Amino acid sequence: MRDLLRIASGQGFWGDDLDAPVRQVEGGPIDVLMLDYLAEVTMSIMQKQRARDPGAGYARDFVPLMSRIFPAVAERGIRVVTNAGGVNPRGCAEALVEAGREAGVAGRVRIGRVEGDDILERLPELIAAGHALENMETGEPLTSILDRVQSANVYIGAAPIVEALERGAHVIVTGRSTDTALTYGPMMHAFGWSPDDHDRLAAGVVAGHINECGAQSTGGNCLADWWTLPDMATVGFPIVEARPDGSFVVTKHPGTGGRVTRRTVTEQIVYEMGDPSTYITPDVVADFTTIRLDDDGPDRVKVTGVKGGPRTPFLKASIAYSDGWKATGTLTYAWPDAVAKARAADRVLRERMDRLGLVFDEVRTELVGWDSTHGPLAGEPPADLPEVQLRIGVRGPDRSAVERFTRELAPLILTGPPSVTGFAGGRPRVQEIMAYWPALIRREAVEPGLAVDVVEV
After folding, report:
1. What is the predicted pLDDT for the residue at 424?
2. CB 363 within 8 A of CB 327
């Protein structure tokens, strides 16, 4: 058993800093590079891409990234663990094999893939077997929107990642793995933790939670003295230095921007937090109220004391479904009376839509530069506000009504209040709305169908 494992975060979401993983690999010693690409809406986007192209459905920018770092990964023995597989882990793994050969690492790298989290095609079978997949917020059964479902994936835990590592995989691609498992899976493998070692697994969950959002734990998006953070143009992404007892240190590579302090780490810990005593993952329930943070030197925070409890009998399903159409457009009004002009334009537009008989589920107006962030709490604007952007959006089930709305904004340029600009982008684009349906499913309906395959480049 090894006594230290360095797990570096390389991506916090699909679209994050493309050079961050390269900096993590080249900036100093690491053992594992984890990259988190997925969010709830991401799965539906990938499913749509795969519907148009059977070879798509995964994070396409991950493959060229690996082409850049494959030689270093092979030479230094770095393991890469990612959920970039999206709804097509097989396609992603096949593209990686080809990229690895082109990068000159044939015979030195093994690619592992994890499949089985995608239950879209199984939904009728599961419902017939008694899995109602009720909405966790409303209690409605999935049958009420089944014909509109676009994607359905279950958050899986670390067991398949551990298996792939045990089988010698250097790069592991999963579908909807829970974000934290990308970090604590390698910890379980390296330290030999058992599935019922609840406190250590809970510590791994905390490490994964700190790692999963990239630079958000090293100063990015940070309220704590954000103006004092150095060199954010080359911000260092976090690295977890983990020990077999579950303790770990959060740090970053020397010479990189940002900062690792108790404040930056704390802000990430409370991110997306519900009940802090019951942070549920597929493998363990972590108690975040037991976390102890201590300074361990410059850009080093030590984490200890984490407690955990047994896993639940359920897994969480992330389901996305079509819920109508939307469009949003903007116009910018200048001083004098910028706010009064924008409000007048909003009133005129709404009256014209009423006259046309356009009916929407919602019409929302915001004055960007005044009340778009704080709404009514912004109070009344100052009379000398130099400019304000009118942003108005509609949503509803009738695409043709939304399409007609997009044609009513431009006429305000010549038929509404003066001093208007900012319409150079043309008519707003009609977009399909993807709504989120969270549900629970018993783990025995999913876990026997999980599959791990490892192939050599």
Report:
1. 62
2. no
| Bridge partner residues of 334 (DSSP) | 387
Strand runs (DSSP E) across 12-141, as ranges? 32-35, 79-82, 110-115
**Alpha carbon distance 169, 166 (integer Å):** 7
Question: By the 8 A CB rule, do 230 and 255 touch?
Answer: no
* pLDDT tier at 225, thresholds 50, 70, 90: confident
The C-alpha angle with vertex 382 and arms to 381 and 386, in degrees rounded to 5, equals 100
Residue among 297, 34, 28, 307 nearest 187 (CA): 34
Q: Domain residues of the chain, as ranges?
A: 5-117+155-312, 320-436
pLDDT of residue 384: 86
Dihedral sign, CA of 159, 160, 161, 165?
Answer: positive
- Look at the domain 320-436 and name its fold: Alpha-Beta Plaits (3.30.70)
- Residue 65: phi, psi to the nearest 5? -60, -50
Query: With the C-alpha atoms ordered 162, 167, 168, 169, is the resulting torsion angle positive or negative?
Result: negative
The fraction of the chain above a pLDDT of 90, given in percent, is 91
H or E segment to which residue 241 belongs:
strand 239-242
Cβ neighbours for 68, distance < 8 A, ≥ 6 positions apart: 22
CB distance 308 to 30 below 8 Å: no
For the chain, report the end-to-end CA distance as a whole number of angstroms. Answer: 27
Instruction: Region of 376 please: left (phi>0), alpha (psi -120 to 50) or beta.
Output: alpha
Q: 431-442 and 79-82 as β-strands: parallel, antiparallel, unpaired? A: unpaired
Peptide bond into 71 cis (omega under 30): no
Whether residue 438 contacts residue 322, with contact meaning beta carbons closer than 8 Å, is answered with: no
Contact 402, 339 (CB under 8 A): no
